[in-house]
Amino acid sequence: MTIDVGSAVVQIGRGPTGTALARQLLPAMPPGSRYVVIDRDPAAHQLPFGSPEPTHLINTRAAKSSLNLGDPDEYARWVTEQAAAAGESVTEFPARYWFGRYVRDMFDQAVKEATAAGVTVDVVTDEVVGVRPGRDRRWRVECASGQVFDTHRVVLGIGMLPQADPYPGIAGAAGYFTDPWQLPQLPAEARVAVLGTRLTAVDTALTLAARGHTGPVLLASRSGRLPRLRGPETTAPTPHIEACMGRAAAAGSLRLTDFGRALMADIEAASAQPPDWTEVRDGGPTTRDHLAHELAEVEAGIERGWQQIVNGASPTLLPAWQLLVEPDRAEFFEKWLTPLLVHGAPIPAETARRLVSAMDAGQLRVRDGLHNVRHTGDGFAVHLGDTTEFADVVINATGAGTDAAALRTQPMLAGLLDAGLLDAHPLGGVRVHVPTFEALDRTGTPVPGLHILGDLIRGAVLVTNDVIALSFQAVLLATALRTNDDEGVRPS
Ligand SMILES: Cc1cc2nc3c(=O)[nH]c(=O)nc-3n(C[C@H](O)[C@H](O)[C@H](O)COP(=O)(O)OP(=O)(O)OC[C@H]3O[C@@H](n4cnc5c(N)ncnc54)[C@H](O)[C@@H]3O)c2cc1C
């Protein structure tokens, strides 16, 4: 059945990004207009905020997690009220499922208010399997159920793509699990190797601990670096970065060395002792002592200059990334992406405390140098540098896929790539025209009426892993959509 939704926007995905966008657009729509939101499973347990595990905490403070940039305390207020009504108390880092509930509540409220104001909102539970050009510059949004929506504007906010298999030779082997969010009950004494040392891997270690797993757990990656810890939210002045950005804006381009020097100068000015820059970039695996030392620092409320600058400079990253010259973006990904993720996506002290206690119990270890995993018939050989460890179970917790193969796991994206209407970004995801978030086709031309937000545009915007950055993207797109006519959103 084809449904002509006239000039309605069809939004695919109602996670944090889609919800932030709907909350921007719906209140401004005139009575009689229409909006369609399609999601295959908005409460999905495979998503970070769908996890029912109480030890999976939000990594950004509640006070910094509002989906509404105009009301920064919205989430903190909401979770305090909801938890009190449920007879629970929450810390400043509540269990992540609370945030999932908040997203759904904010979405439902936005739909209710829009409906009361005379807007028709279709909330559809279905999987989108195809987005194809239709007649007269319109789009056909095809769902798995057979429903087709005919519209002039589509927004994709479909979140993270499935993880890639880093060692395809073990795919399908008994004991290899590709989805850390849907782990079956494992034999309690099994030797487990978790591939990855970032947020998803940390969650996996916490899941095993919460289930009473008694066997050894190894977190392994190339760098072996766990996320740093989130300390206070204070900021320090960033005069060097501001001056550097002023010069870059005037010149219309930015060099990585200039931004790097400015960042280092601001961090050094904010730090009691100058940081060891080799350690920041190439520091080895996180040891128990590193983690325990940092935990003690954070518990004592000690300010770390690097974090004050990261806190203060984070809004600069989007404009800096847009001004950075292309070769320098590739160099950044090669040399600085791991340090950015280690320092820029930190974990709460409570999570670190659980990790330290599992390390003290001799159960959890973190190793670097991961370069191969082989199936040995009755288990797995995990190759780390020139040593090998053996595991009964291997769990892939390397995080979202972003390369062209990962894009093709979504039939809708595969179709758009084949049609040349999407182009894989060399640094991950797909290419977009950032001011309007319109897809760029194979020739680099904006595709009218096809917009993309969130993790799928990581290469184009760099930061897609926190709700503030995603809400900001939603505000930028909503502004572009509201200020332009029906034919397109690019300035003429
Ligand atoms: C382990 C981990 C912990 C994290 N912790 C935090 C944190 O504490 N704070 C923070 O700010 N960020 C955190 N993040 C980042 C977080 O994932 C993102 O901020 C956020 O979930 C992304 O929201 P989204 O709406 O873009 O995507 P998603 O939440 O993935 O939502 C996308 C939606 O699209 C739907 N969808 C996908 N494909 C289709 C299709 N074909 N048809 C129909 N529907 C479809 C999905 O069902 C889903 O509901 C964390 C990430 C990880 C991996």
Describe the structure.
With 492 residues, the chain is of the alpha/beta class. It folds into 3 domains: 242 residues, FAD/NAD(P)-binding domain (3-Layer(bba) Sandwich); 109 residues, FAD/NAD(P)-binding domain (3-Layer(bba) Sandwich); 106 residues, no CATH class. 36% of the residues lie in helices and 17% in strands. Helix 5 packs antiparallel against helix 6. The relative contact order is 0.15. It binds flavin-adenine dinucleotide. The site of flavin-adenine dinucleotide has 38 residues, from helix 1, strand 3, helix 4 and helix 17.
Walk me through the topology:
Elements: E1 2-4, E2 9-12, H1 16-25, E3 34-39, H2 74-85, H3 96-116, E4 120-125, E5 128-133, E6 139-143, E7 148-151, E8 153-156, E9 176-177, E10 192-195, H4 199-210, E11 217-220, H5 239-251, H6 256-270, H7 277-282, H8 288-299, H9 305-313, H10 317-323, H11 326-335, H12 337-344, H13 349-360, E12 364-367, E13 370-375, E14 380-384, E15 387-391, E16 393-396, H14 404-407, H15 411-418, E17 432-433, E18 438-440, E19 446-452, H16 458-461, H17 467-482
Parallel strand pairs: 1-7, 2-3, 2-8, 3-4, 8-19, 9-16, 10-11, 10-16, 11-12
Antiparallel strand pairs: 5-6, 6-7, 13-14, 14-15, 17-18, 18-19
Helix pairs in contact: 1-3, 1-17, 4-13, 5-6, 6-9, 8-13
Q: What coarse outline follows from CA principal-axis ratios?
A: globular
The distinct ligands, each listed once, are: flavin-adenine dinucleotide
Total domain units: 3
Termini, distance in Å? 36 Å
Specify the biggest β-sheet. 7 strands, mixed
- Please give the share of residues in helix: 25-40%
**What integer value in Å does the Rg equal?**
23 Å
CATH class of the largest domain: Alpha Beta
Q: Pairing-aware structural class of the strands and helices?
A: alpha/beta
CATH homologous superfamily assignment of the largest domain? FAD/NAD(P)-binding domain
